[in-house]
Amino acid sequence: MPPRTPSSATGSSASSVATQATIPDAATADDAVTDDPVVVDGVLTMSGLSTSVSPWIDVGNGSVTVSFVVRNISPSPFDSTAVFWVDNAFGGFIAKTGDIAVDDLQPDETRRVQAVFTDLGQHIVLNVNAVLTPPEEVSGTEVAPIGRDVTLFVPPLFSIAVITGIAALSRVGWWAYGRYRWGLPVVVSA
User: Fold this and answer.
1) pLDDT tens per residue across span 82-100
2) CA trace torsion 167, 171, 173, 176 (10° rounding)
3) Cβ pair 96, 83 in contact under 8 A
4) What tens digit of pLDDT does each residue of 108-146 get?
5) Is residue 43 over pLDDT 50?
6) pTM of the prediction?
7) What are φ and ψ of residue 166, in 5° steps?
């Protein structure tokens, strides 16, 4: 059964930008592709998802960068498509890239495919997903779409700032009330 991919959501203000680049250095490519790999015998290797979160204090709550690495281990080049999307903790759709063409992946070429999602909102837990869809057959081997996912914790900085502000104001109010209640002078500077 192929991995699920969501349809487009309506009303989401999140946006995404996708990029891809070949990793020319063999040692770097080897290290990148061995991160929790899925290997389709004789055809391709796909790494797990690498992510980074950049939370902001505003309500948009920053960005999430997600990528995977794919290597063609077959003797012939092939084209694929990739798609990334983000869900909330309950599976509610937040954002999706369009289809990303991973064209002309040459034999022994290693390529990083990356998406950056911004304006995701105040979610504490995000599920980030990716599906790579290669051709149905490569060099005589049947290939199915490969899905990867990862769950992220995103600190809700806006909510933390609001709660901290309310707690600080409450503490100052409680202190002022105590000073007034016990008849102690309240010093107010001009």
Assistant:
1) 999 998 888 888 889 999 9
2) -170
3) yes
4) 999 999 999 988 777 778 899 999 999 999 888 899 999
5) yes
6) 0.75
7) -65, -40
